[in-house]
Amino acid sequence: MKKLLVLSMVACMAVSAAACGSKAPEAPAEAPAETTEEPSADAPADETQGEEPAADAASGDKVWVIATDTVFRPFEYTDESGNFVGIDVDILDAIAQDQGFAYDLQSLGFDAAALAVQSGQADGMIAGATINDERKDAGWIFSDGYYNATQTFAVAADSDIAGFEDLAGKNVAVKSGTAGANFAEGLKDQYGFTVTVFEDSPTMYQDVILGNSAACVEDTPIMGDNIKNGGLELKIPEGMESEGAPYGFAIMDSANQELLDMFNAGLANIQADGTYDEIIAKYIGE
After folding, report:
1. Which CATH superfamily is domain 9-147+246-284 in?
2. How far is CA 35 from each of CA 39, 49, 89, rounded to the nearest angstrom?
3. CA 139, CA 281: separation in Å to the nearest integer?
4. Do 9-147+246-284 and 151-242 have matching folds?
5. Kind and range of the H or E element at 223?
6. How far apart are CA 195 and CA 193, in angstroms?
7. Per-residue tens of pLDDT for the chain, all 286 residues
C-alpha cells in the first residue's frame, strides 16, 4: 500500500540495478526451458530458483516482467532458506500455471516496482497494492481484488494506549505512500497527533519500540504476522483499524491488458478450485 510515483534519476537507477528471478509454466519435453538471465548475487532469492522460463529469445514467446516488493510479509519476503515466498508470490505462480504464461518476477521494493511499471521496465506489479481512486486517477489499472485488508494502529507492548483519543499530543509513525499513511493522515487533525514518515516498515516499527513514536500504522495482516512471527514488542489495540479495501494486481499501460485479463481469469479459476484458499491458509491460516 503504498507509494505513488515520483520519477527521478535515482529511482530509475535503483530499478535498473535491481535483481530479478524468472518463473514460467513447465515447458514441453521437446522444447526444454532455457534461462536467459541470472539474478545478481546480492538479490534476495525468489520462489523461482531452480526452475527456468519456458520462453527465450529464439522462440519469441512473451515473458511478462512482474515487479514486486522486497519485504511485505506474509505477501512477499525471503524465508529462512533464502527463497522468495509469500501470498503474492504463490498467487502469481498459480495464476501463471493456470493461464499458461511465462513471467520474470523482479523483487525491487514497492516504490521501485511502481516506477518500473510506470516507465515500461516492467509490465505489471503485485505487491499488496490497495485499490483506491487516488491510484486509479494516477494511471494504475487494477485487476479484480485478490485480498481484502484493513489498516491498523499498533503500539508498544507495554503501552496503555487503547484508542485514538489516547494519541492526542503524541506522534504516529507511518510508511511513505501507503494506505496506512493515508489512514493516519485522515485522523491526525481529529485526534490531535502528529505523523512522521519512514521509507520502510522495520524502521517504522523500531521507532515505536524505542519510544520515539506512540504508534505506527500498517496493513493488519502484515502487522499481525510481524508481531507473531517476527517477535516485535508491539500489540494491536481493538477498534483502531480502518474499513477493509482490496489488494489488486496492477498495470499502467493499456497495451498490457492481456496480462490483466489473464490474471483475472486465473484468479477466478484458483478461487473456484480451492488453490487460493490453500495459499491463504499456508501463510495466515484463514
Report:
1. Periplasmic binding protein-like II (3.40.190.10)
2. 11, 11, 19
3. 33
4. yes
5. helix 220-229
6. 7
7. 444 333 333 333 343 434 344 454 544 444 444 433 443 334 334 444 334 343 333 334 899 999 999 888 899 999 999 999 999 999 999 999 999 999 999 999 888 999 999 999 999 999 999 999 999 999 999 999 999 999 999 999 999 999 999 999 999 999 988 889 999 999 999 999 999 999 888 899 999 999 999 999 999 998 988 898 888 999 999 999 999 889 999 999 999 999 999 999 999 999 999 999 999 999 886 5
Cβ 217 vs Cβ 171: under 8 Å: no
b/e 11-23 (16+ beta carbons within 10 angstroms → b): beebbeebbbbbb
What whole-number distance in Å separates Cα of residue 280 and Cα of residue 284? 6
Please state the CATH superfamily assignment of the domain spanning residues 151-242 in this structure: Periplasmic binding protein-like II (3.40.190.10)
